[in-house]
Structures are given as structure tokens and as C-alpha cells.
Amino acid sequence: MNTKLHAVADANGRPLSFFMTAGQVSDYTGAAALLDDLPKAQWLLGDRGYDADWFRDALQAKGIQPGIPGRKSRNEPVRYDKRRYRRRSRIEIMFGRLKDWRRVATRYDRCPTTFFSAIALAATVIFWLRSTSPDPRSCAMVLGSKSRSSFPRFLICQMSPSG
């Protein structure tokens, strides 16, 4: 049971949408699935796994500037904002906080639908319910241990000021 979790997050590192694929499936599948769910944004950061000309063209057609480094196998290097790309750590922190929930980190659930539901529940509690709570440590006892495994792929969007 190897899965890959693709996520779209806002500039603060809060998840907006998820898509889960099998571990051996290309990242282009996750990119195509999340393309319609992208909010209006100024720019998008993505891992090298999302480097495809059709994806870059689709982002630019939506008015989003891609911040995706080119694959090493590309014949012509792709230009991207390296300084902005360093902000990708926010999505890595988001995945790390999700894995604080033991059920997500160790994947107790065999059924992908149940596992995806656990991810959605953890994201809702960690990033959306706790952010409105007056005391951010109020749910600290619910969290489990941290795992060393990682979710390798990410997308970050910076929202436009107009919404």
C-alpha cells in the first residue's frame, strides 16, 4: 500500500485540496486532477515532478505564474524564481504536521477512502479549527508520534489580494 498525496495549500501553508494517487503513478496525474481546483492565485510553487510543458501552459492560461524548477533531464533549462521557490518549506511543514497524527503517519487504514478521510479530518482539525481557537495548544494532547516517512510532492499557491 504505497500512496502519494498531492496537496494544494495557500501561502500560509494551510491545505485547500488533496488528491491521492498510487505510489507508482506519475505526478502529472495529480497535477491534472488538482488543476481545476486551483484558486485564483498569483503564483504556484511545485516540485520538479510537476515539470511539464502542458502544466505550465495551463497555469499561465489561468493567470498563474509557475514556480516549478525544470527536471534534470530537460534539454533546455526552465527559468523560475529561486528566491520564491525557497518558500516551499511551508508545504513540507504542513505534511509534517499532518504526520503528527499517528493514524496518518503510519497508515493504519487499508482502504484508501478511509485513509483519505483521516487525512481530511486531521487537516481540518490542525489547520482550520485550531486556527480559530483562542489557545492553539488546546488540541496538543490529541496528537500522536511523528513518523520519519515523507510525502514527497507539493504545490503552494499564493492567493490574489482580490480573493
Report on this model:
The structure is a single chain. With 163 residues, this protein is α/β, with parallel strands linked by helices. Helices cover 36% and strands 18% of the residues. The chain has helices at residues 27-35, 53-61, 82-85, 89-98, 102-106, 112-132; strands spanning 3-9, 15-22, 41-46, 65-67, 155-159. It has a five-stranded mixed sheet, sandwiched between helices. The radius of gyration is 16 Å and the shape is globular.
Features:
alpha/beta, Nucleotidyltransferase, domain 5, 6 helices
Summarize the structure.
The protein has 163 residues and is of the alpha/beta class.
Secondary-structure map with pairings?
Elements: E1 3-9, E2 15-22, H1 27-35, E3 41-46, H2 53-61, E4 65-67, H3 82-85, H4 89-98, H5 102-106, H6 112-132, E5 155-159
Parallel strand pairs: 1-5, 3-4
Antiparallel strand pairs: 1-2, 3-5
What is the CATH architecture descriptor?
2-Layer Sandwich
Assign the CATH topology. Nucleotidyltransferase, domain 5
State which percent range the strand residues make up: 15-25%
Describe the biggest sheet?
5 strands, mixed
Query: Which structural class is indicated by helix and strand composition?
Result: alpha/beta
Gyration radius, rounded = 16 Å
How many β-strand runs? 5
Distance between the termini: 38 Å
Mean of residue pLDDT values: 77
Reading the helices and strands in chain order gives: EEHEHEHHHHE
Question: Which CATH class applies here?
Answer: Alpha Beta
